[in-house]
Amino acid sequence: MTRVLVLGGSWFLGRSIVDAALATGAEVTTFRRGKSGEDATGVRTIRGDRTDAADLRRLAAEGPWDGVLDTSGFVPREQLAVARALEPVAAKYIFVSTVSVYEGWPIEPLTDESPVLDAPSNAGPDYGFDGDPGPSVYGFTKAGCERAVNEVFGPERAVSLRPGVILGPREYVGRLPWWLHRVERGGSVLAPGRPDRSIQPVDVRDVASFALHAVGANLSGSFNLTGSGDETMEDFLHACRQAVGSDAVFKWVTDEEWLVSQGVAQWTELPLWRTYAGAWNVASSRAREAGFTSRPLVETAVDTWRWLQSGDGAVSHERAGEQGIAPGKEAKILSAWEKRQK
Fold first, then answer.
1. Residue 315: what pLDDT?
2. 3-class SS at 136?
3. Which among 2, 81, 99, 148 could bridge 26 via Cys, Cβ 3.0 to 4.6 Å?
4. Residue 35: what pLDDT?
5. Per-residue b/e over 101-127, b at no fewer than 16 CB within 10 Å?
6. pLDDT digits over 79-107, tens only?
7. How far apart are CA 324 and CA 173, in angstroms?
């Protein structure tokens, strides 16, 4: 029986990893503070704080594990302490990072070989700087966390997963939920940019599946996890309409410079809309060669809508309040756009 330790495990990706691991018959231990979310049925839960040395020693005494799956590391020096505590009792460490670690994100197309931001393994939470549109402190510190895991576990026992935008059931940021609710309201929906623009969100369950695959497979190094790029923004919005069963009509505002000039915030007011060339151009060829697969957007939309209707709410998070354009502003922009087309 595979024994895995999940650091976190009650929110979004962490919970999906737990659910997937339990479905395979694995013995699952979670390590979490217990201040938000709920413990999954069937797991052994150890309460503790990853920033507390005594808690880490107590956790390590509960090992060994075939793999650690870490969805909650953000500060390099704290990540270094966690890795050092668990190295003697874990065969492999799978760290969930982000495409934001790349120097070129989101300006330029990226591959698994693209240059990564430089951050030391003992950096604090404020290392780096926030640029516009990038890089970010978040990207710098995640890069430092990757380095910390690699330094402690070595290149053969460390795996860094670099997902792009993750969608699916239990999403707490609220990108897909906002679109689903907006499309449910029906009427004229502001659809940003070109309908045929490729987008690459990835389903949380596909990321979880590959993370578990990395435990038992002979994998090491870093892997981008993004959608195939075969689907478009139009496919995404149609998937939302299919999921909710509404009569929404999509009004495409194709002049993106004009849309920006109207004061619409990219990425938040119209979630998933971003004009930069690299935002939806991240190759995941290395992961796909290693067994990663991604499901179609319509499946993600339908399953997320089903989850939303179930009443099993997401963990409350401040970022959810950032998502979505106000109805009045949307209507005003659509009216101006229609007049502009005459």
1. 64
2. coil
3. 2
4. 80
5. bbbbbbbeebebebebbebbbbbeeeb
6. 999 999 999 999 999 999 999 999 999 99
7. 11
